[in-house]
Design a protein that fits this description.
By secondary structure, the chain is of the alpha/beta class. The chain is built from 7 helices and 17 strands. It has an 8-stranded mixed beta sheet with strand order 1-17-4-5-6-7-8-9. It has a 7-stranded mixed beta sheet with strand order 10-11-12-13-14-15-16, with helices on one face. A two-stranded antiparallel ribbon has the order 2-3. β15, α7 and β16 form a beta-alpha-beta unit.
C-alpha cells in the first residue's frame, strides 16, 4: 500500500475520534505514533465539501442531519507536508477553523487551484501566521496562475496597497505557469491544468507520488500524461448526477481508471453523495470517500 488512512475527525474537538466517539490524544501524529512529517509525505484533508459545505444551511436531508462526523464537510482544502515543507492547497471561508483544528503555527506556502470564493475567501486569516512570532513578521507565500492572482489582488486590495494600514495580511504573490513545474524549498510541484467549465481553467498539483485535483470538469490527454505513475490520486466528485462544472462520481472513476493509482480519494462532495457509511462502501476497491481530518501517509 502506498498510503495509510488515519482516523476521522470530530467537529467538536481538534482531533480524530475513536470508534465510540472518544477524542484521540494522538492528533497530529502518524499511524501508531511512527515517523515524523519531515521524513515522509502526509496529506491531511482540511475540508472535503462543496461551496456550501455540508450540512447545507436549512437542509433537513439524511446527510445534513447525520450525527456521523464524516458527513460534516467544510469547504474543500488540503495540507501536504513533505521534505520539511508544509503546503496548504486553497484557503476558503473555513480556513481559520481548519488551521485551528490542525494546531499548526507555521505554513510555508498556499497553492490556489482557482479564484472562486470557496477556495480563496479565507485569505485574510493568513494574518495569524504573519504575526504568530510578533514582532517578527512571517510573510505567507501564495502561488497561483495569473488569472487567480489578479482576483486575489482585487478582492484583497488592502493587502497590496502602497500605504497599508497596520495588521493587514502580509502575502507574497508568486505567479506560476501551468505548463512549467516549480519548486518550494526541496519540493518539486507539477501543475496540472483542467477546465472547471469550457471557459474557466482550474489548476491541480502533483507532488511526487501524490496528485490533488479539485473542481475539474474536463482534462486534456496531455495533462493526464502528467499524472502517470501517481500512486495516490485525489479528485473531485460532486454527486452521482451530471453537473455542468464538476466531475460526477462516474466521471471521477473514469479518470481514476485511466491513471490507475494504487489508491484514490474523492473530495469536493455535496450532500447528494449520501451518507458516508453507505457511499464509501459502494465504491470500487482502492477508491475511498475522503472526509475532513483524514490523513494519508505516502511513501516518498
Amino acid at each position: 500500500m502506498s498510503g495509510k488512512i488515519f482516523p476521522q475527525v470530530c467537529f467538536t474537538h481538534p482531533g480524530p475520534v475513536a470508534e465510540g466517539g472518544a477524542v484521540c490524544p494522538e492528533w497530529g501524529r502518524t499511524a501508531h505514533g511512527a515517523g515524523d512529517w519531515r521524513e515522509m509525505m502526509k496529506l491531511t484533508f482540511l475540508g472535503t465539501g462543496t461551496s456550501q459545505g455540508v450540512p447545507v444551511i436549512g437542509c433537513r436531508c439524511e446527510v445534513c442531519t447525520s450525527e456521523d462526523a464524516r458527513d460534516m464537510r467544510l469547504r474543500t482544502s488540503a495540507m501536504v507536508e513533505t521534505r520539511g515543507c508544509r503546503l496548504v492547497i486553497d484557503a476558503g471561508p473555513d480556513f481559520r477553523y481548519q488551521m485551528l483544528r490542525t494546531g499548526v503555527r507555521h505554513i510555508d506556502a498556499i497553492l490556489l487551484t482557482h479564484e472562486h470564493k470557496d477556495h480563496t475567501g479565507g485569505l485574510d486569516d493568513v494574518r495569524a501566521f504573519n504575526f504568530v512570532d510578533y514582532p517578527t513578521i512571517h510573510r505567507v507565500d501564495l502561488y497561483a496562475t495569473p488569472r487567480t492572482l489578479r482576483s486575489v489582488r482585487k478582492d484583497f486590495d488592502y493587502a497590496f496597497a502602497e500605504d497599508k494600514y497596520r495588521g493587514v495580511p502580509e502575502i507574497e504573490l508568486h505567479e506560476i505557469d501551468p505548463a512549467v513545474p516549480f519548486r518550494i524549498g526541496e519540493v518539486e510541484i507539477v501543475p496540472v491544468s483542467g477546465h472547471h467549465s469550457p471557459r474557466f481553467e482550474v489548476t491541480g498539483y502533483r507532488f511526487g507520488r501524490l496528485a490533488y485535483l479539485t473542481d475539474f470538469k474536463s482534462i486534456e490527454e496531455s495533462e493526464i500524461q502528467k499524472l502517470q505513475g501517481v500512486e495516490v490520486l485525489v479528485v473531485n466528485a460532486l454527486r452521482y448526477r451530471p453537473h455542468d462544472s464538476h466531475f460526477n462520481v462516474e466521471e471521477a472513476l473514469e479518470l481514476i481508471r485511466r491513471i490507475h493509482p494504487r489508491e484514490a480519494y474523492l473530495t469536493h462532495l455535496s450532500h447528494e453523495i449520501g451518507r458516508y457509511v453507505v457511499a464509501d462502501a459502494a465504491l470500487p476497491e482502492g477508491v475511498h470517500l475522503a472526509h475532513d481530518g483524514m490523513q494519508i501517509e505516502i511513501d516518498e
